[in-house]
Design brief:
This protein is an alpha/beta fold. The protein contains 6 helices and 5 strands; from the N terminus they run E-H-E-H-E-H-E-H-E-H-H. It starts with 7 loop residues before the first strand and ends with a helix. The model is unreliable at 127-155 (pLDDT under 50).
């Protein structure tokens, strides 16, 4: 999907002004936008509905964004692209967010145009949950073995 077609977007943000600004900005561009002001509501909406992308604050009441992201990727099994939006912009926070399953991490304050560009980029990449290490290693070994075999045959 691309931003040219209307997207269904979930905004999970406890700051009502920021949430309203995001909803208005994205809706003005033709997208269908739902919002949740806390982690539990966000988990419920994300678990029971299908969204094209989730914009997720890190610090939320009732359940933080890291836990929500981990639950969506784990028990719920959602592969919906997740962009973390947060004022916590330390490298360690970004790394943890990405390790929990987020597809991108946007520090606050941000320009809404940059956010839209990042949504586009994640959708272009066809964001998928990361492969488990057990599955990733054999695939790589098979590719290496097959590459070596081709080189050997061509000599």
């Amino acid at each position: 999907r691309t931003m040219n077609a209307p997207l269904k977007i979930l905004v999970v943000e406890d700051n009502p002004d920021l949430a309203a600004n995001l909803v208005d900005y994205l809706a003005a561009r033709g997208h269908l936008v739902d919002a949740a002001g806390d982690g539990l509501t966000g988990l419920h909406l994300a678990s029971t509905q299908n969204f094209d992308v989730i914009l997720l604050d890190l610090i939320l009441p009732n359940m933080d964004g890291m836990t929500l992201c981990r639950r969506l990727r784990g028990a719920v099994g959602k592969a919906t692209p997740i962009l973390m939006l947060t004022a916590r912009d330390e490298a360690v926070d970004r790394v943890i967010g990405l390790e929990m399953g987020a597809d991108d991490y946007v520090g606050k304050p941000f320009d809404p145009r940059e956010l839209v560009a990042r949504i586009e980029a994640v959708l272009r990449r066809g964001a998928r949950p990361p492969a488990s290490p057990a599955r990733a290693r054999p695939t790589r070994r098979r590719r290496l073995a097959s590459s070596r075999a081709r080189r050997h045959r061509t000599r």
